[in-house]
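Hi V.,

You were right to ask for the full record rather than a summary. Here it is.
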Amino acid sequence: MVSFVKNSRYYFSVIVLSAIAAAGFGLELPQGSTSIKEELSEPFCYYLYPSDQLGFKDCPHGTQLTYDGAFNAGLGELDLFIGSSLKPVNKRVKTLYKEYIPVFSFTDTADGLEYEIQALATPYDLEPMNILINFISITAKNPTDKAVNAAVKAQYSDRKQDDFRYDFNRNLHRYYTDQFLLLDNYKSSADGHIADGQAWRGDHLVFTYAAGEQAEGADISLTQSKDPAVTYSFSLAAGSSRTIYLKMPFVPVYKEKTDILEQVNSVNHADYLNRTIAFWEKEIAKGTQISLDDEKVTNVDKASMVYMLMARNIMADGTYQQHVNEFQYDYFFSRDVAYFTRIYNMYNRPHIARDILDHFIKYDKDGKPVGFNSFFPDDWGQVLWTMGAHVRATNDKEFARFVFPLILGHFDKLIRLCNDDPLGLWPAAGPYDNEAITGHYTGHSFWILLGMKEAIYLADLLGEKDYAAFYQSVYDSYNDRFRKVLGEKLEFTGGYIPPGLDNPEDGYDWANSTGGVYPYELLDPFDPVVTRTLELTREYKYREGIMTYGPNALLLALQNARGEEISPSYWLHHYQTFNIDEPLLARGQQREVVEDMYSILAHTGSTQSGFEFAITPWGERNAYDNYTPHGWFAARFKELLRNMLVREYQGTLHLASALAPQWLRPGKTVKITDAATDFGMLSYTIRAAETGADVELESDWRTEPKQILWHIPWFLEVTGVTADGKKLALIQLPNDQAVALPANTQKLHFDWKWKEQPELSYAKAVELYLDKNYNRPEDADYCFLFPTPRAPRIKDNARDFSGTAAVELYIPGGIGKIYYTLNGEEPTESSAQYQKPLTIDATVTIKAITIWSDGRKSIPVSYTFTKS
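Predicted structure:
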């Protein structure tokens, strides 16, 4: 989501970032890596200014671990200094315990010593409304063969004023923070003091430090000022180490809150470290489990659940509200939470999903439900999708009956608004979010039609035939009007679905880029307009192997065809890529899905975090104040991974829709356990061998799927399949093959041989990114990381000429052969092959396509040259 509403700094960011993108301006990055070797010397972190979140499930706030290693906790920050010169800790790359549990570690060096910092945040007694405490340890290690003097300093100060530290004052949850402090008293404090293991600003405790016996053998000096500090100096013998412990409450604690002060002072670092790890291990082990021999994929999958749960807040009334993160998106957004709810249900966490549904529902002063909340123009359908999808996943008919009475009033609003609209559709909206247009958003109608289908489903489920018939009539009428308006635009766009239904060249690609396929199930995945939309979007909108947020694909294609300067792509957009990959998955374009998945992963942090937007392609890898981790990225990554293994589509259950080659190497195992589907529970395990695989399935259907299709990986040639000993025939689908399984199949056996050995992995994606980023090969394709068929381009953009002209074509990335026509026919492999610049002496249209030796093709392009 890119919101004009959510982020009060959005307009400022757009102006500044646009200027930076236009000028090619690069920041000084003192902590940034400067070489491929350095980047690969530790876990790869895409961001040069990463932001990490120290938090806990349901706790209303979390501490920001800044790019340089400071602890920004709302009303102040704790900074660390090391070595004889007391240099500020400045470490970009951090890691998680076991790569997915939120205990953060990072190491900086000084005077030949290593200073390893470990940090976690846990509320007292692990209760989310209790005081959140940051536990920080600094371990000085001496790897040398002689004694070396060490020093550690911790200082509390106001938050530094830069774009990389979140200003919690923008969204301080007072119902939580007022339990612990007197805000006005704290803000007016002009002095501070430190003694006996406690550091204070005015009347508020801001951190504690090891003193007395805990600090025996170290010289301690204290700084008595508004910014209290403690400095430890000690000698480290060769090969020895020493640890300093600090505790920092997220909220400064007022001196008269004696019970809270006792809690902060009494907790033990080692005890809470163990309890926190055990808590998250137990939490991650709940629900659906995915096991793959692919560390980065599984680590991001597990950490994503952590980031989702961290962003769920307990409210003052004891209810739960899902947010996106604990920083600038620490709010409830209906679109985001619709997906969060769906993913919790997909991963068999229905109670978590149910907890957050209440904030979609409007209650009166007596607690009676009276309707659905509306926050944005696109949430009319999202709220109904959320309700219907929850019921389909859980079969919770009691909940269905609870929300069903609210639907009729929801339809009344829709009918009233559509009657007042000149197109008879959901009315025009301003540039409030995402597509950034003033007009009729295509995505609004996608959501409305999906929402109406969910209303019909709920009515049918509950036996409400009259309501079902009424909702169906409204659906049919709206669908007819929408299709008519969209059809008129498709005639202009050549089949590309535009972001808006007024001027197709306006707006940024968003819901339109799904082709109406997922989650809407409005258009068939193989509809030519879906094909055209996806092809055009991938050809013109990808940079660094993922989607961008900026002018739409049609505008860029028209600019290219007309010989105009193509508008810049503005910014990378991490999770907008999933809007492309879900329909690709439904179309059986497995290779593209797997390549995109690894490209997406190459853009995560070393702590498995995803971002939203604001990073310029091939730029400084800096999202400014668009802080990671982004919870919606986490949700959508989990959604894609689950759908690659198990997905529903119009009553059919699809299994193994896209498997990465390395998952099926001999001896590897793919396992998904307790996957909650719309039909019931399913588990399966693939055990791969050189010449095939054995699969065990276990199902518990509430309702049997109309069909179960097991998809065949594109890199394998299957020579035989049996299900419980019975032979199955291969089914040829438009882009892949599958076998239809009996509903209660328990054992599958495949015989296969490898057709190709694609080099697809996270490590390869990082290698490709680093090569292009640092070496900038002249003939490289900078839109994709992995080699991808690209449409031919013209070197000289001029389309008008006099006399004669030489037209030179090239392929971004340099792979494949160009075939072209001059007579208006569509180019094929039988057309003329481009060998050298074409000499033209009359007005002509050149149509060209790139074809690879393996048969893969680019989209065709057309260029008209006019002789004046």
